[in-house]
Amino acid sequence: MKEIKHFINGAFVGSVNGRTFEDINPVNGQLIGHVHEAGRAEVDAAVQAARAALHGPWGKMSVDERAAILHRVADGITARFDEFLDAECLDTGKPGSLARHIDIPRGAANFKVFADLLKNVPGEAFEMGTPDGSGAINYAVRRPKGVIGVISPWNLPLLLMTWKVGPALACGNTVVVKPSEETPLTATLLGEVMQTAGVPPGVYNVVHGFGGDSAGAFLTEHPDVDAFTFTGETGTGELIMRAAAKGVRQVSLELGGKNAGIVFADCDMDKAIEGTLRSAFANCGQVCLGTERLYVERSIFDEFVARLKAGAENLVIGPPNDPASNFGPLVSLKHREKVLSYYQQAIDDGATVVTGGGVPQMPDALSGGAWIQPTIWTGLADDSAVVTEEIFGPCCHIRPFDSEPEAIALANRLPYGLSATLWSENVGRAHRVAAQLEAGIVWVNSWFLRDLRTAFGGSKQSGIGREGGVHSLEFYTELKNICVKL
Ligand SMILES: NC(=O)c1ccc[n+]([C@@H]2O[C@H](COP(=O)([O-])OP(=O)(O)OC[C@H]3O[C@@H](n4cnc5c(N)ncnc54)[C@H](O)[C@@H]3O)[C@@H](O)[C@H]2O)c1
Ligand SMILES: O=C/C=C/C=C(\O)C(=O)O
Predict the structure, then answer these.
(1) What is the distance in A from the centroid of ligand 1 to the CA of 36?
(2) Does residue 457 fall inside a structural domain?
(3) Interface pTM (ipTM) of the complex?
(4) Core-most of 29, 93, 98, 202, by most CB within 10 Å?
(5) Domain, as residue range, for 328
(6) Sheet with strand 136-144: strands edge to edge
(7) Which residue ranges have their beta carbon within 6 Å of ligand 1?
(8) Is 221 in the same domain as 275?
(9) Which positions ≥6 away from 420 have C-beta within 8 Å?
(10) Is 288 annotated in the active site?
(11) Do 107 and 135 share a domain, yes or no?
(12) Blockwise average pLDDT, block size 10, the chain, 486 residues
């Protein structure tokens, strides 16, 4: 039985109050281990360690030295690839093939890319005239923001946490991470990698616990954290923003979505089906960028629905260690209750259930898991909660449209604006529609194709700010202008 501790000031420590909570495997409902729950004392110790580390060797390192250490962190993840893979699959139940190709490699890449970026990023300088004719030079330097609070969700635990820790550390900050209570393992394992890679104590800290009235809230209420970067639900983002207002601390928020996919009759149908099967059902639909609303041009509607149905019914439901499986359980029975409530709502609202809609029959050994069927609906009104609210499950609603302006208006009608996909072989149309979609990220004839140098984030209620490439620098550093009179 695992005992999962905090990682504070370079060491694994338990909670002084002795409180723990259970980490459950969503594949079979079995106990993975007991996780220490941080009280204010542990959160305070972590923040103090992070503050002290800013003034220790970490704060004095050159960019090159920091980058070399972060490369060792990335190499350390790769060297222990299978351990990270097993830990991520244990916590989430996701298919091993998915974590092998996305979650764990991105965990390593998130350190490498930002270490290299910092070594190569240009600065700015302006010469100016002065009344006495001697002139002045302005130049800007970037300084770390300080102690960063990182609060992350359970759907892509290592990927999303390192997406923030990588650039934060590359910029010279120190971090206190509060991983999701559902998925504590990989953030903890990363502590061991940090030790081996020579990251000084206090630079990377992890405190475990829940959100409200627990480690998450204690971290956001701590006055000595300089800024918060958060990925999770829009409602939680509002709470974090409110807490961060005390002391005027900055926030970077990557929040929920209800992402639209638009499929035009001039698409390549094979590609559109393949891409939509991934965007609706990958990671059991638990991807913030996933598609839960599809708008399909009427002339190809029936064919598209039939082919997506066939694809969904071909998904192989199974546990992470089954090499044939490409569809795992939801993260928990609690989350399944939420998703199933929308499955019921769809029926109550008069949907046609094209496929799925319930819980699959699983072998006895797996019957305690959070299994659910991939589900497709048609026939719902545009204002049904199933079509307007983020479900975060393996499901989508498909509705026909008749014109390009109608498709754009339907895609833009919700208060979310994270991502959108559009499928068309007409280049002019693709650019025209992409330009009008209210979303931070638009994928044309693809989905979840990620270049880490690009801006990533949501518009409207899907977030504040952009991370990725140089945009991460804007958040993780303070830009200081120095004006020198000559
Ligand atoms: N925009 C993006 O990039 C992105 C990426 C992944 C997930 N998401 C969103 O995340 C959500 C799913 O993740 P989730 O259910 O873990 O989200 P969540 O908001 O419930 O929890 C996220 C984290 O916040 C913590 N938390 C909860 N309440 C808190 C509080 N009051 N104070 C401080 N911390 C608190 C949780 O413990 C967890 O660590 C979905 O809405 C999804 O769209 C967004
Ligand atoms: O579930 C949301 C996925 C977010 C992905 C990223 O933040 C990323 O690819 O950097």
Answers:
(1) 20
(2) no
(3) 0.94
(4) 202
(5) 259-451
(6) 125-128, 136-144, 477-485
(7) 151-155, 160, 178, 180-181, 210-212, 216-217, 220, 231-233, 236, 239-240, 254-257, 288, 390, 392, 418, 458, 462-463
(8) no
(9) 259, 260, 261, 262, 411, 437, 439, 441, 442, 443
(10) yes
(11) yes
(12) 96 96 98 98 98 98 97 98 98 98 98 96 96 98 97 98 98 98 98 98 98 98 98 98 98 98 98 98 98 98 98 98 97 98 98 98 98 98 98 98 98 98 98 98 98 98 97 96 98
